[in-house]
Every structure is written in structure tokens, then in C-alpha cells.
Amino acid sequence: MSVQTDAGEEESSESHFFETALAEDGWQASWIGAEEEEPRHPVFFREIRPEKEVLSARLYICGLGLYEARWNGEKIGDEYLTPYCNNYHSWLQYQTYDVTEQMKQAGTLSVELGNGWYNGRYGFIRRPQPYYGDGKKLIAQAVLTYADGSKEVIGTDESWQVSRSNICFSNIYDGEQRDDTLPAAETAGAMSVKPPRGKLTARYSLPVRAWEVLPVRQILHTPAGETVIDVGQNMTGIFRLRVHEPRGTRIRLQFGEILQEGNFYRDNLRSARAEYIYVSDGTARTLEPRFTFYGYRYVKVEGIADLRAEDFSAPVLYSRLPRTGYMTTGNPLVNQLLSNVSWGQKGNFLDVPTDCPQRDERMGWTGDAQVFSGTACYLRDSYPFYVKYLHDMYTEQEALDGAVPDVIPGFGMTSVSAAWGDAACVIPMKLYEMYGDKSILEKQYDSMKAWVEYIYRVDGEDFGWRRRFHYGDWLALDGAEPDGCRGGTEESYIADTQYRHCVLLLTEAAEILGYADDSAKYARLAETLLARIRDEYFTPTGRCAIPTQTGYLLALRDKTAPDESRIVQALQKKLADNGGRLQTGFVGTPLLCPLLTKYGDSEAAFALLLHEEFPGWLYAVKLGATTVWERWNSVDENGRIAENGMNSLNHYAYGAVAEWMYRDVAGIAPISPGFRKALLAPHMHRDLGKVEAKYLSAAGAWESAWEILENGDVEYRCSVPFGCTAELKLPYGGGEYLLEPGVFQRTYTPDVSWGADMKSKKNEEEKQ
Ligand code: BGC
After folding, report:
1. Residues with a CB atom less than 6 Å from ligand 1
2. How many other CB atoms sit within 10 Å of the CB of residue 414?
3. Is 361 annotated in the active site?
4. Against a cut of 0.90, is the pTM above it?
């Protein structure tokens, strides 16, 4: 197949096809289980003999908690951790595999089940039973289409048999244990079991695969006498280890993110054991865990006499997210930061957007998800990933009267918070803005509305919402306790402001979808809320009564201040009084650089970005971070981890700064949703030197690049994709242009002396 443009360009592609999921009544199989739950994981199997010539074969399957399907012992497909993680009470995902090649001949289909999120230890609600799970269960059906057009369906039922594997322990937090010295297990008949509660549904989850495999960077022998593998990058995934130890040898791997005084360390994983234990039967083989994953850079290895680098590798697991954002700058530290942000996404986009991938949490925290969503969409095509998350979110809301629990899937958590549950309104609008597809608003409209209506009810006549518990500006540096979690911005103010913010987003969604009554209704509500906010948090003459960086930023974002210029000045003064340093947490940080830039002080925004000491993004980079940390001070100058209670080194939230870098530094921002029309408005800084960025938008590839030359001139180049238009605004007298598709280039002498009135230069002078 090929297409041609008016300009005679031609692109061709191989033909592709799609096929639909099973019809509603397409399941003929029934759920099966094993006689009794024992630690050794069950393996269900049955022989399949095609009766005639096979034209095509499909396997439809869901196994709980996790499943791995094999044909004659070979893994089917290349996905990990299926059937993935969601609100299992409401729905269960099945996957479809093309098994035509396998099922042309007779063979054995087998399926091993692990515990995973469904049946294993996971989540905050600790109870004897897992929250969703009720045992290991399997449903599967192979559909063979024969050359003569007839079909045969082979589904799970009591004719299947069950044996046991050598995996005798698995869960998400603690890892896996396998003992190859166990005797061969007995075989028994599978039994039919009560179907689980959720509705079997065709998958929403993207495939999780090993998209890259990291080699060993070095093998360390630590002062404490440990053997530790360093893969050179904090990442999320599993491992492959070639073992050849004598029978009965016990091998143990433990995973951690950082060394302390040169020794292996993992106390910040809290109760997560994050290990793999293997007892060898003396056969050389490659080990790979099946039903767990780890967030790690370092692996402590015990039980292997001559560990060799080539025997170990680190498959990196994340959901399918084609890369869309590319950026490099003239500053190596900033480039490393961009790499860290990108690894933050890979590490926390394993089916669910998680807070972190390593400790006993790894949950879909809504607050983290919403602040990072813009960055996620620049870096990678995140649309279908969030579609699943948002779909799941609404299933939780349906059972909670519209409330969005703090984590999705909820795993029994029912607590809610401003800025966290707001993900229900923020993410759909972000997706619409970035991808231009209204259907996400159509799909999520009820969820957005349910969240707003929920707050409305809680708020009532007496400001119930602001009196609730809220996380506030989580981990900000201006809180009462220096190392505490609570920031200094009054939570009630954040709650009221965020509530109105959601109402504004809902109003916009209603307008876009043509729901005139709703848009009028919510516009009125936003007005009422504005009046209330002004009454409570602004003095009659326009001073903001919440005098924190985040307080001012929220006022600017939503234009709640009666007099904006006062707030801009107050923010600048606040920053200056703090030595030009940030104090913001989860709520304020994503707003900081964008709003300073918007209100004309990109210089202050660059100063924050380029600040190399604590607190700031480059502080971690300078200390060797390869991912974004949870706290501004997760690690001190001496490399000591600040605390163990809540301190992850792979937390993507503060990586939200990358959205600003794409939007305002490279200057590629949508004017129309989906980037058919974009604003190219780069911001430049001598210490960054240059930027080269590309964004593969839904409408085509945008490029924007600038460089400050030796003589102070600016060179700018951009390219506008086919069918798109751009408004270009070059700073410092570079001019404004309306651009058609194609490449535009300009070199000019800026009307700024980079030396004299730029703070960066001043700093340099001060240093000399
Ligand atoms: C998580 C956060 C989350 C927070 C709620 C933490 O334990 O790791 O990132 O948003 O709890 O405040």
C-alpha cells in the first residue's frame, strides 16, 4: 500500500490487519482451579491435536493472579505479568495470542499461575486475604480455524489436568522462590471453580515487554564482603542469570537502588523483600523470574562461586509506549536530567502509572499520575496507557459514589484527596490537548462529572471539602517540619483551588462535547467558587493570604487573584528571599517554571532548572542519580540516603519539569488540540547554550532547535509537519511569523546582551 502527497512524496507500508476480540457470547470455556492451594504454583495443561489442516489458531486467556502460557514448554507470546493489574472486582482482562504456528501440530498447552497483584501481598490494606483475589483460577480457550472453514474450540474444563511447578513462592513486593530439587509433582484433575467477580473483558492494558536489556556495568566486591552487580541505571524489570552451580546450592539475589558507603543497601524498600531465591538441581540454565518485578540498579548475589558479568543481564519491563519526544541541550547535566525523567516514565509505566517501582507500594497514585501526565505525553505516546488507567478509575468511582480513591486500582483504599483525585479531570483534558481526540472526553465525561459532583456534595453549605484531610503540597520544603511530608501551603486553600480547577476543566469538556446545560451550570459553579476563594484567601486589596510559592502559583494558574501583577511580584520576591530557590512540592513544582515563563520571568525559571545545589533538579544529577528522586533531598551531599520511611529514588513526579522544557524551552506547544496548529515560542538561556527537540505529535513531526552562537547571535530552526501551521515567536527581537509546513531557519542578533543583563552571566561574574 502507498500514499502520495500533492508534492509527489510517497510513503508505502506493508499491509496490516486487525481483528476483533471475542464476541460477548464467545466464551465456551469455564473457570478451573486446582484441588488445594499449596505453595508450589499450579500448572494446568492439556494436549491439543488438530483434527485437520490448521489455517489459524488463537488463544484467549485470563489466569489469576498472573499467568504464563506455554506450548510444549515454550512461552507463548512475549508479554510479562499478564493479565495485568486493574480493579479486578469490576473487570478482568483477557489476552489474545496468535498460536497458528504452534497449533499446526499436536502439542501440549500448559499454563502456570502465580499470585501477582490479585492473589499476593500488595497494597496498603493489610488483611489475611488479598483484597481482590480468591485463589488461582484459569480460563482459556484455543480456537482452531481449519482450512475447510470449520472451527474447533478447546476450552478449559474439568478434562484439563494440573501439576505443580518448582516455583514455590511469588508476589509483587517480595519476589520469587524456585527450588529445582523438588520431586516431580503429582498430576491431578483440574476442578471447575466459581468464576471470579469481575467481568471478562478484552484487554485495555498495553503489552508489557522487555523493550531493552541492560548488560552488567560492573561487578563490585563491597567493603562488607558482598558481591554486587551494578547495571549502571536505576530501572524496573527482571533479570536473566545463567547458573551452573552444583545441586543443592542456594542462590539468592536481592535488589536495591543505591549503595551506602560502598555496600549493598535496600532499607528504603521498607517491607518489600525484593529478592529471588533459587535452589539448583545442578543443571546449567538461565533463570528469569516469572511473577514479580524489581526496581533496581544493584543486585546483591549470594551462592555463586564465580559470578561472571556475561551471565547476568537486566530486561527492562514497561508497557508499549512508542517514543515521541527527543531533546538534547548544550548542558550535559540537563541532558542527564532528561534521561532521568525518561527512565522515570519507563520505570513507572508498567501497566499502571505508579509512584515508584521498588518499595512495598508501587501503586497507581493519582496525584503523581496527574502531575506527570503532560510530560508523559511529550516523551511517549501515552494515550492508550492512560485510557486503561482512566477506564479503571471510573470503575472504582462507580462503587464509591464518584469519589476517586488515592490509588487506581484502589485495592480497597477509599481515602481521597484534592490534587490526587483531580486526576479524573486533569488527565482526560491533557490527553485531549495533546492528541486532539475528543473520544477520551466522551468516554471520561461521566467520571469527570462524578468527581466534581462528589466534591460538591462533600463541600455542601459549610465548606466540607476544605475541612477534609488532603495531602496538600506533598514533600514541599516549606512545611513546619523540615523533613516532613506536609508542605507549608494551607491544604484547605489547595483543596478549594483544585476543586475550582476541576470545575473549570469539566466546563471546558462540556463545551467541547456540546453539553450546553452542563457547561452553563459548571461555569456558574466556577464563578461561585471564585467568589468564595477570594473571600477566604485574598485580602480586599488583592494580597494573597497564602504567602507561599505554591500559594502564588495556584493563584496564577487559575487566575483567582483579583490583581495578577501583585501575585507575580509576590512570587518573584518570595523566590528571591529564598535565594532564588524552590520550596515547592507535588502541587507547586509542575507549575513553577511554566508560570514564571508565562509571566515574563523565564530567567528565574532557568535559574531554578540550572541550579546545581540542593534544592533543585540538577542536585540529584550531580550526585549521580539516573532517575528522578521522590524528595528534593532523598540523598545528602555525602551520598547518604536521607531516610528510609518514604524515600524512593525512582519517583517520576518532579520529572514534570520536562513538559516545560518541551513546551517553553524548545517551545513546541499545541494551539489546537492534537498539534495541527502549534505555537513555537522557544525560550533561550546562555547556560543552556542550545536545544534540539523533536516531538512526534499525532499530526506529524515538529522540530524546534536554537543555539546561542559564540558571538551572541541566535540560530533558530524549526520544521512544521505536513498539514499543520505554526505561530513562531522568537525571543529578543527575533520576530513573529506564521509558518506553513516545511523548514524555517533564521540567524539573528538578539536585542539582549547575553553578558550584561542576564543573571547567568552575573553569576559567573560573582564567581570570578
Ligand atoms: C507515594 C506518593 C503518593 C503519596 C500520597 C506516597 O507514599 O509514594 O508518591 O502520592 O504517598 O501522598
Report:
1. 355-356, 361, 365, 367-368, 471, 474, 646, 651
2. 12
3. yes
4. yes
